[in-house]
Amino acid sequence: MKEIENPMVIDSHWSEKEKEQTIIGECAGCQVDIYTGEDVYEFDDYGETVLIHQKSDCCMLYISEMSVCKVAGE
C-alpha cells in the first residue's frame, strides 16, 4: 500500500516560497543582528543611523549605555 503525503506538512513545498532573511544592521541596545521584517526604532544620532529592536529591553540597554544615571532633584 502506498502512502499519500499531505502537501500541507511537507517542508519542501514551503521552502520554495520562503525568502532568506537579510541582515540590515545591528541593534544598538543588545548588539544582536536585525533582519528584514523586524520591528525597529530608527533615528539619527549625530549623522549616524541607529537601529534598535522595538523591545523595551533593547531600548533600556541603549539608554543606559548612552546616558549618565542621576538622582532627580539632586
Walk me through the topology.
Layout: H1 11-15, E1 23-26, E2 33-35, E3 40-45, E4 48-53, H2 56-66
Give structural notes.
The protein is 22% helix and 26% strand. With 74 residues, it is of the alpha+beta class. The protein has a domain at 20-66. The strands form two sheets. It has a two-stranded antiparallel ribbon with strand order 1-2. Strand 3 and strand 4 (48-53) form a beta hairpin. The longest helix is centred in the last third of the chain and has 11 residues, at 56-66.
State the assembly state of the protein chains.
single chain
Number of E-state strands: 4
Uncertain stretches: none
Q: Which structural category fits the helices and strands?
A: alpha+beta
The helix content is 10-25%
Mean pLDDT over the residues: 85
Tell me about the biggest sheet? Answer: 2 strands, antiparallel
Count of alpha/pi helices: 2
Q: Termini distance?
A: 82 Å
What is the radius of gyration computed over CA atoms, rounded to a whole number of angstroms? 21 Å
CA-based shape = elongated
Strand content: 25-35%
Sequence of secondary-structure elements: HEEEEH
**Largest sheet: spatial strand order:** 1-2
